[in-house]
Batch of 4 targets.
Target 1
Amino acid sequence: MFKDWNARDWAFVLGFLAILVMGGYAALTSEPEEPEDATPAAVEEPAAPSFDKYSAQVACQSAVKDLLKAPRSAEFPPLSRWQVSSEETEAGTTWKLSGYVDAQNAFGVMIRSDIYCEIFNIADTDRYRIADVDVVSR
């Protein structure tokens, strides 16, 4: 393969390698520049944990997959196609989600099943508890 290369091909390859090496060296040896008006950054409080409807959906999908015969075949619709409601109390938030999943049954046939999840999120944390999960074949 290399026997057919002429001087122009070799020059291109060597030039490319030289640029690559110089760029890598420059990136490794350069120090980050500080802005001219560098002022100490204000210390920010860490953000409060946020368990939202997307987190509830992920938790529901995980719980549903645990009940399926072929969890790797599971195909869920986007969140916009789910029915989601929440009820907040001092102890936390209860999320109720319903939708469907397409997954293979024990025979390898894709079937659609209705799903329902109830998830309790402990107030001001990312911790949750699965209160109920149902998967019903259509």
Note: The helical segments are 7-29, 53-65.
Target 2
Amino acid sequence: MFASFPTSTGWAERDTLRSMWKFGMDDPVGTRSRQTATVIFLIFAGVLIGANLPLAIDIFRFSSSDEALRRVPLIALVVTLAGLWYQAHRAAFNLEIDLVLKFTQRWDAPELKAIRSAAAHALLRDPRQADGAIDDVVDFFEDVGFLLKRGAISHHTAWQFFWVPVSTYHQATVPYRLENESEDAEVWAQFEHLYSAIEAQERALRKRHKITTALECSKERLMELLINESQLLGEVPRFRISKRKT
């Protein structure tokens, strides 16, 4: 998780949510799709096994029934499919975690900390002025949003690791994005998709646990978050890496 992102800014309830909702254990949005796929597979496997159960019993009793022996490949196929499904599920999960950890390492890397610091300074100075560092931070979340849209990471994983920084910068850059929006509809589209997806996750979890605090932070808390971000390096960085979209 983003260890360097400030948490002593009045958003303590979000840390409480993370202690309540263990990773992968409470995912009202993403879990439904996985449960549906699992149920469909189990029904399919159950029908095959049920249809061949008498023959399977004959086999296990060392029956010499020719019909029973002919069904052995079918039963083996069911077992093989179950094993392949489990392996694919675990491989996808491992890939998802690997991607997320790489992004968290990138977020906390010195280079991106310098960019985050510069972006926070720019937002505090003038939230409408075009700035390459702000673009770079948004581009980072664009990459995360792309992976989410392609299904490489789940809604719950995106919420677990990215909700606080995404919601902070999404709220802080509203004037910036309105002032500097491009005619290209795809500019910042993945960032919006990422925020919408994990906002839905946040709302669902808050509703489930009857938490009624405001989803967005106050203007004062937002400023405090940006001040903390601007002080990541202790000073304003003298360089800036820009890949601004046009």
Note: The chain is about 70% helix and 0% strand.
Target 3
Amino acid sequence: MFTERQQQIIESAVILIAEKGIQNLTMKNLSKAIGITEPGIYRHFRNKFEVIKNILVYFRIQMKPAIDELEKEENCIDCIVNFITAQLKIFSSNHHLAKVIFAEANFQNEEEFKNQKQFEMIDEQDVREMMNFVNEKKERQFKSVIL
């Protein structure tokens, strides 16, 4: 999904936000951190907003294998445990990402991010889908016990 350079920019942005706060994420600071010119960053991302939006996409891509595994697991409890374990592995190997994803304060004071539905990591539809998934698993388990 991302080019090697885009991934480098995203990962550097994550570190910059985690260490210095979102207000210090500027294209100038990002270019210094990476060692490329500002126009080099603009070739990949139009602005700071797009960089941050893609941090969330990057997170979702890293979570995709764990989400795909949910479909394979028959036991509902095992399913949830495996999903949480996968998240912990991702966050333990990239503590900067965890700090950015879970620090809602990073996004609260930025005017561009206010009222931006796409920045909600878990929205109502995600919750409904997860609940439907869990209920289907429980129903299959129940039927297998009865039969």
Note: The radius of gyration is 19 Å.
Target 4
Amino acid sequence: MEAALCRDQEVAVGGGGNFAGQAAIFLSGVAKHVHLLIRGASLVDTMSSYLITRIEHSTRITVHCCTEVERVEGDVSLECVTWIDRRNGVRETRRIPNIFVMIGAEPNSGWLYGTLALDKKGFVITGTSSGVREHPLRNQRHRDLCRGRRAFRFREARCLCGR
């Protein structure tokens, strides 16, 4: 379903592990372009070599090393994403309506603290009894913000920005 929403659009995948690599390759088959945003200097220590090879040979995937998402913007839904290259401080803003955050088994979700409900391990709590669906920043047009415990599809910039 997520792939259909990305058809002919640029998307971002955050993460440098195998799960992120698989998502980037899969999405490159339908998306206009995939931006793979990783905090590390390379994929070598965190991703299988066969995935790295496929990503390097894809003209529809760009790997942005030493990069962090700095800002997401949108009115009703996500419209733009700004990331910063920590090596040189250069910021890039792209019209990207979908971000897939693949944080793996050790979440780097501290930036969501106070915005979304997190469990004691730092995973975003999903489901109808707690978490996102009851969160005060949820608006009427909210679509599923989280799918599972490891991959998150951000469709509402208001939830992320606290607007």
Note: Residues 130-163 have pLDDT under 50 and may be disordered.
